[in-house]
Each structure stands twice: as C-alpha cells, then as structure tokens.
Amino acid sequence: MAILRVENLCKSYQMGEIEVKALKDASFQVNEGEFVVVLGPSGSGKSTLLNIIGGMDTPTSGKVFFNEEEITGFDEKKLTEFRRSRVGFVFQYYNVMASLTAEENVELAMEIVENPLPVDEVIKAVGLDERRDHFPSQLSGGEQQRVSIARAIAKNPELLLCDEPTGALDYNTGISIMSLLRKLNREMGKTLIVITHNSDIALMADRVIRMRSGEIIEDTVNLNPVNAEEIKW
Amino acid sequence: MTKMDLMLFRMIKNSKSQFLAVLIIIVVGICVYTSMNMASDNLRNTLDSYYVENSFPHLFVQVMGVPVQQTERLKRIPGVSRVSGSLTMDVPVLSKDTDRRKTLRLYTMTGGPQELSMSMLLEGRPLSDARKEIWLISQYAEANGISPGDEIRIQVSGMDHTLTVAGVVANPEYIYLIENAQSIMPDESNFGVAYLSETTGRLIMGEGQNYNYVRIEYEPGADEKALIKDVEEQLKPYGVNSIVKREDQLSNAIMQEELQGLVMMSDSLPFLFLFTAGFILMMILSRMVKKDRLKIGVLKAIGYRNGQILSHYTKYAMVAGIAGGLLGSTIGMALAGGMTKLYLEFFNLPLLRFQFDITYIFSAMVLAALFCVLSGIIGARGVLKITPSDSMREEPPKKGKRILLERAPFVWKRFSFSRKLVMKNIFRNKKRTIFVITGVTLTYGMMMFTVTMPEVVDQLMNQHFTEFQKMDYNIGFYKPTHESAVRDLYHVIDIDYAEGKVEFPFELSRGHKKQSVSILGLEKDTRFYSFMDSRNKPVYIRAGGILLSENLAKSLKVKAGDQIQIKSYLTEKKEVQLPVAGVIKQSLGMNAYMEIDEMRKLLLEEGMVTGVLLNTDDSVSEKLLKAANVASIMSTQDMRKVYEEYMDLIIASIGFMLFFSGIIGFCIVYIATMISINEREGEFSSLRVLGFTKMEIFRMIRRENNIITVAGILAGIPVGWMFCKYSSEVFSTDIYSLDMMPTLGTAVWAGVFTIGFVLLAQLATYRKIRKLDFLQALKNRAG
User: Fold this and answer.
1) Euclidean distance between CA atoms A181 and A142, whole angstroms
2) Is B388 near chain A, with CB under 8 Å?
3) ipTM for this model
4) Is A161 on the interface with B (CB under 8 A)?
C-alpha cells in the first residue's frame, strides 16, 4: 500500500538574483515499510524533493499525497503538524542542538508529540547508551548523526527522511549509520527515504529513484538488497 | 523544564556578558524607578502626616494689626474651622559675629489645642510664661550650635532682650527655612525662627491686644474663593498686607516643587534606561535569530511551531526583564529607605512615614518584562520568516553594492585594504551602524546635559548676582519709612552709593489669571538693576508702565503692551490698571518692577521707602546692628555663599548622572561590538588564515568604532541641545528659570566623557577577541 504518492511535482525558487528550477515534473510512489534511495548528483533536486515530501517546503505545482491525504494543500499550521507527528528528519550535517546533551536532543523532539517512543529504548537502539550525557562538541560525527537519527525516530514517525546521512562521515562510520537505518527500517517497520549521491548505498534499497537536473530519470525496484556491511565506496 | 527552556538558559549562560550588560541597564532603570517612586511616596506621606499632626493651616494672612476679638470673629465665616492669631516680628540677633547680620523671626504661640502650625518639640522643655523663653527652630539651632539652656540676645525697637532657649522645635511652616521669596535659598545660620508665649511676646514686641499674623484652617470641601473674599472683607479695616494660600506658602511651595521634581525624575529617567535596554535586546535578538537560522529551521523541521520558537527567543528578553525587574526593585527598595531618610534629613522633617510598597516590585517587574517582551518580539520576529527548507540551504550572499565612498576614487584609492574593509563594514551593515551611532548619540546627549547643568547653575548665579542686580547690600525696614531714611544711612555707613526702594506684595491679574508677587519700586535710572528683554536688549524702568519677569508674564499670560490689574492688600487703595511696559529676563525669583515715584503715588504713599539698596565697603552688619528699624540686611556676597553650597549638592548629583550615562554608552558599544564579532567570525577566520593578527583584527573593529563614535558625537550635539532645552522647560520653576544652553566647553567635556566610556567598552572587547577561537568558525555547522 502506498504511503506516499508524488504527482507532477515542480519547484522553482529564487537564489539571490537567479531563478533555480530545482524540480521538474517528478512523479513516483513509496510503499509502506519500503527502503527507498533517491540517487543523484548534487544539484539534481533531491533535497528539494525531500523538503517538499517532508512538508518543509511547498511546490510550485504538482501534488504530494501522504496516506492518500494531499499535503501540498496544507497551510503552514497543518504542515507543522504533519512534520511534528508523521515524519522524522535526518540531516547531512546532523544539525543537533549544540547546547543540549545527546539525550536532551532526543527529548527535545519527544516533548512535542503525544506518543513518543521511550527515550531509553531509542538511545539504546542507536547505540548511544554510554554517551547520552555528552554534548555534541564531545561527540564524533558518527555519534552526532546517531543523535540526529534518535531524535527523528523518537517521535515515532511513519516516515523517516534522510538527507545524505553519511555525507559528512568517514567510510566506517557511514556504514554503521546505514546499518542502523536499515535496522530501524526492518525491525521497527519505518518507511525510509534516503537521498544520496553515493550510488553504492542504492544497493541496500528496496527501490532506487535516480534524478538528474530536477528530473526523475529512473525508478527501479531492487529485488536483492544487500546489507550495509556488504557495500563499499 | 522543557528542553527549549533548557536551551534558553544555556543560551543565556553562553552569552552572559551580553546578557549582563542588558541586565545592568534594566537593573539601574528599575532601581531608579523603585527608589525614586518610593522615596517620593514616602516623602509625600510623611509631609501629609506632618501637616495633619501639626495642624498646618490653609490660609496665612499678614495684617498690620487686628484685635484678638476680631480674629475670633473670623471663625463665623462659613467653611472656617479653626483660626489662630499670632504676633510676629523679624528682629536682629546680637552676636559676636558682626560680619553677618543674623535675623530671628519671632512668633507668639498659645500652645492650646486650637493652635495652628504647631511646633514639634524635638529637644528641651515646654515654655514658661514666667521667664523670657523661646523655642528655637532646629535648623538655626543646629547651624549655630545652640542647644536648650543657651541664651540668645536680640534687639527689638532699640531695646536688648536676652532670651533663654527652652527647646528646639520643628514647625511645618519652616520645613524649608527661608526668609522670604527673594532669599530663594535657606541660609540657616543667619535666619532663624523662634516661638514664644503670648505673654512674653507682647512684653517684647508690644502691639497691645492685636495680632499681625492670622492662620486659618478650612473645613473639608470649603469654598476657598468665597472664604478668602470674606476673610479679606473682614480684615480689610485692619490693613491686610498679604493673603497666602497653603499652595503658595513659601516652604510648602518649595516642598511641593521638590516632590514634583522627584516624581518627574522617577517618571522619565527609568524609561530612558528601559528604552535603551529594549533597544539593545532588539538588536541582540534579531542578530541571534539570524545566527540561529539553521537551528530555527531544524526546530521547525522537527515540528516546532512558529509561536513556540518565537516565544523561546522572546523568553530571553523576558528573563532579562524579570530578573532585572526583581533585582532592580530589590536594590531600589533597599535604597529607597536611605534615600527617603536623606530627603527627610535634608528637609528637617522630624517624623518618618516609611512603608515598603510591595506593589512597586510588581509594577517594576511588569514594566521591565513588558518592555523586554515587546522588544524581544520585535527583535525575534525574524523567526517567522525562516522556512526550514531555506534554512538548510546556504544563505545567498548579500547583494554586493559599492558604497558611496567608492564612487570617490580619489579618496578610496588612498585607503589601505583594512581601512577599506572598515569603511565597507560600516556602510554595508547599516542597521548595526545606526544602532551604535544611536547609542553613542544618546550617551553624548546625556553627557552634554549632565555637564551643562552645573555650568548653567553657576552662570545663573553669576548672571543674577553680578549682571542682573548689582548692589552690595539690600536692607529691609520693619515698617515703611520716609525716604529721608536713605540720607540718614549716609551718616551711619560710609556709603558709595544708595537708592531707596519700595517692595510690597500685590495681587497681579489679567482675566482669571492671578499671581501674588512683590512689586519693587526702583529709581528711574537705578544703578542696581540691569533689565534685559528676551533679545538681550536693555529695558529701562519708566513711569507709565510695569515691568514683569518672564516667568510672571508667562503665568499671567501677558506680553508687553497688555493691561494688567494690580490689587493692593492695603485698605485705602483701589485696584489700579497698568500697561506692561516690558517683559524682562530674570533667572531667580518672580517679580514686577515699577518706577518708585509712580508706584508710591498709585499704590502706596508718597515719599515712603521700605528699604535701601547700597554699595559700600563698610561693615554694614556691624554698624546697623542696633539700628531700630532695620529688619534685614542681605549682602550679595552672603547670598552667593549660600548658592555655592547648593552648587556642591548639584555637583554630587551630576556624578551619579555621569555614571548612569556612562553605563548606557558602555553597554551599547560593548554589545554592538560583541554582536559584530560574533557575526563576523567567518570573516575574521578567513583574515586569520590570510595571516592577520588578533591585534590587527581588533584594530579594524576599533577603527569602525572610532568612526561611529565621531558620527554619534556629531549627531549627539543636537540631541544634547534638545535634552537641555527640554530640561530648561521642565526644571524651571517660579523660583528660578533655567536657560540651559550648551557651550563649546560643555560640548568638548561631553565628548571627552563619551570617548572615555567607548574606550572602556573597547578594552572589554579586546579581551573577548583575544579569547575567541577564530578557527573554530571554519569547522562544521551545528545548530
């Protein structure tokens, strides 16, 4: 069953004095529990797509349906509500709050939802039990990304959106993060959309959507996804 | 505590120096608000209770002599509740110190429950009828080191009397111990008041069974106007010299003015601080929001609402407001006690009605919080504009524009690279530049006002005592005398030059505007007064018109050429109408002036004088010590001394003002520089990578600040001028007219002080720059 349906999505925006056409007529759908990788070089429109799916941005035209409900017609208030309760974000640069400890960063997200996951469970699930009282400045990049993932899943969202989650990490840490995401997808049943320019990560996905210059150029199902430990880049 | 609040407290902790700077301004503002408001409330309450407890009258009537029975009859006038009569006389004190004439004003008292203006015995014992005893006013006793048991020798109508001081008292009529409206300042060692029993009084002063001073108390809700008319009617046959309402009674009028001044200060000064604090908070928060763009985006991405994030930042301001309010009002409360006591001591109020009005803590906190929250919302409103997706993207570079100076290549090319950078930073970040310029402008304006004040007061004294009036001595007689008395004085004193004068109280009116003042009758070509109009053109005293001081003309709403009514309190004289011949500048006092012969003819008696103005090097006090008809000898030199003492008081308060202005300037410049450093960490990091030293970077900031300081000072000149102009209007009273015009000297001093505080702020900035890890800014992003 489709959890997400994207129809003819277009987005242009102003960057300084230049108009950028970030997305051109993109259409696809994602099924519940699926692990989808959106693959493309930088500037291909992946982040824009993710932002619109996640309710962080609005399209110039086109529609996005989440569980058959059109979110592209939502106003600011409804979009905030959508982000709050339905989706979780993981960013390339972690974007954790520097003034909060690992655990407090997770609690920051939990405080605004009605049925969050227990904080201990989440912290344990991302392997940060020993480091929960550390501030971001005391954590490695991989650990900060784990905090970011914990913060995203603590709200118990239906959809997890990851924007280049390994982009700022070294190889080994990247593998461990991808392994963690895969585990959350398989064990907790979270639908996962990862955007990346790293084609090797696509080997792990159930479905791969390739983008170039704002357009979807390929949407394929991967019948034999591999484990994170098996990939190399 | 929510995690957002936790972040807030850590945010405050991380920016503690900035937060502290704002907090100081709020604390000072609220402290001033609480302490001054409470001091003025307590002073007002104390004064009111003091008046009630000692039966301070509503009306004071000076008569030539009214029989005791007639005084009793005044009680029948509707609305009158109590009447008490008294004999009063100004007499010279005979002392070894003959350089300065000491005057004692005697009042008889009955000591009964019906007595008005009761004295409060502070030290000593009740008066006895059997002996010549007095109660002495405490200010005079203290200034002359007199205590109960001591003796005072006075002279009345050529006879010496020795009086024993039975007690030292305070009296509501002389809280502010002042001889008359012309004295303006208290001269406690040379003018005193003494109270004596009626029996002793009549023995010394004579006057048969008459009173020459009547005090009247009204019933609540009495029709004052009708009542005064009735009193005047009944006393007219006995020669009314003056009728003074409670609000015009000298000591009370000065007290009320002091209170009003205190209220005015407590109403305006704190707001200056709160506006500054609000302004700074706005700047801090708007910059903070800009810096936290990514963090705000992430919070929005997680699902935090605009309102939640806005309130997160606004709380920063609110915490500053509440903490400042609480701290400021607590310190203010503590200071209020001391401040009230100081005021009470200054005014010799013998009782204290002091209460901690807890509502001031709440109102101070609400006030501070309100100001801060409002500034916080305005400052942090940028939160609303940030969208999570935009925040994730790199901010587009600011539109590059050439600054105005670049269009003048001749100048621009001569600048070094760092100097160019300085100029660009100043012109590109207009908001920040305007913020600092405003801060410096405000500081300079306050400094200018502060340093102008003592100079103006000094100038005012000089102007009044050397340019406006030029006599060495002003001698007053007990009773109007024939002008031959002036000639007689030449036989006693070695006089260079003398002129007779008449000085009498009259009621001047035009339409429904009325004012009781002394009209001074002077010789046509008087050498003792130089009158100037508002355009500094000389005005001469001539028959056919009356000259009014500016404040008098203003209160009567008249100008030169208008007709005014002059009502005499004397029985036989009718109302006279005269044209205003001119309006003259007079910085101290409120008076009218007429040509002496015309004044005598129209309003008094021909050939009479009430005093003499004279120039001499002779020791007047000594020679006139036993002169029977001499009531007062005021030397200009003595008056100046009194004013100089008053100046010391002003200079002490100037110190406080300088300190306050400095705090504002310091905080603004410090915070603005801090914001500038935080915002430009990236830029500085690049410069460090290029090889710039920390000192060179500091120098750049310093140069920016220097240029801004100069601009701020230039803008501060008109602002300071406006402060002075506004203060001239606000602080001018019936007693003195301030004309605060900053001079070049004050402008320079204000500049020196401003630069001093800016330098101090820069030193603090340098410390911060040394500590800053510029290379950290080049590392990865974190919210």
Assistant:
1) 13
2) yes
3) 0.84
4) no
